[in-house]
Amino acid sequence: MEIGDRGEPARDQVRGGVRAIGAIWLILLVAACGARGPLEDLEPGERGRVVRVVDGDTIVLDTGQSVRLVGIEAPSGGFGDRDPQPFHTEAKRMMEDMVLGRQVQLHYGGLTRDRYDRALAHAETVDALGPRFWLNAEIVKRGGARVRVYPDTSAANAPLFDLERDARENSVGMWSTREYRIPHATDLPDTFDGFQLIYGNVADMQGSDGFGAVCDLSLEGSHLRLQIQVPAAGHCQSALGANVLARGYVRDRVMEISDKLNLQIMSAPPD
User: Fold this and answer.
1) What topology is assigned to 182-266 in CATH?
2) Residue 137: enclosing H or E segment and its boundaries?
């Protein structure tokens, strides 16, 4: 009888331990199910199989629909009298390795089509042919694209900045090349024309005569002006005197800051 008496408490302890472990797993499962990913609040769009990769930010589905992945800017191929941008071939191959022949689900967070009738979307793989990728994020993580935000498609773009920073700090992909090192504003040629990231100190703020702009920020030692659009208006005051990392299209020594995410206040120069 003593053996039986001693065995019952032991079994009770085991059962109690199992129940405790089960409760912990249930809590973790509920927490995981309750956590919402960046794409879950977006509007679900079309599904299709990727039959062609144009470059690191543009794919074509078997439905014939071209898709421009939002929130990113991959090196473009040559067109007109322009040569392909550095790292174009490598970025295109990265995207092909991830998604060519796979089923993807589109997600919309604003404007759904551009003037070329391309879908403006986030996309993720949804088949069993390989890992599940959020394409917009994965190409940034691999150093195949830079982050570029437009106000009308800015939903779910914020997480991309940390991925870009990590890729940059670890010299991944394009960030290992001389062409994509971020210049100080004083080193950017006055004749530069194109999308760029630059670093500098905001020296002054003035009114702007640019369409849709609320102010111009001048950078110390540089002819470049940051033209702040309405969605980024808060930076007219908050960036004054600060070191900033700015991104946008540069033309005639003016960079348009179209969204608040495109201007970041920095404590140190970017790597």
Assistant:
1) OB fold (Dihydrolipoamide Acetyltransferase, E2P) (2.40.50)
2) helix 135-141
